[in-house]
Amino acid sequence: MTDTLTLHHVPASRSFRIIWLIEEMRAAGVDLPALQIETYAIADGSLRRAEFLSRSPAGRVPALDVDGVSLFESGAIIEYLCERHPEAQLAPAPRTPERAAFLQWLHFAETMANLIANMNMQYLFLRDPAMRSPTVLKMEARRLEACIGALEAGLAGQEWLLKGGFSAVDCMLGYNLSAAPYFVKLDAYPNVRAYFARMEAREAYQAARRQDGPSAFYKRDFYAPDDTQ
Length: 229
Description:
- The structure is a single chain.
- The protein has helices at residues 16-27, 50-53, 74-84, 99-125, 134-154, 168-179, 190-201, 203-212, and strands at 5-9, 35-39, 63-66, 69-72.
- It is α+β, with helices and mostly antiparallel strands and 229 residues long.
- It has a 4-stranded mixed sheet, covered by helices on one side.
């Protein structure tokens, strides 16, 4: 592998997934180079600069400089790193029994994250709060509840999303569960709450959080769907 890894990162965003995966790989004994983190802020326009857009044409994090290329989209980066380092045993190999479930949860995580991103846009990034749509917010909250319900069912009787144990799909979904409770209360989802507690207890997760940086997003503990203020 390359002798450098550079992650283009916004604190508490989807790029956290990559920091966490790299820490899990290190914990599994993979010899990776030091991770350099270049931090950006959504509000300052740095994600729209030509230099960053040459790495991530949609102007979104994460982007990872690895093996002489810049990869964008967290799911693609996770698949690439898992394929590059099968010795980490964080992804089932192609044509093995849990490969289909791995791919399904990997992409489900991004569907769920996009719902969170839509709610972030409505609550946090509109210049005028009066522009918020209660109808859109209620619809997105219901869709997010449906995703959490699917996750609750998928975790019944097991600790991680794959029966074989912890994998990179848990890194993908871990980001979602750090943000989802701002929009959907998790009281009715005991499997999900226990799952997230197991994530937070992992040493690699804690190491990733120390590198992540403080969130500049959420100013409240909960955002109700009918809140237009």
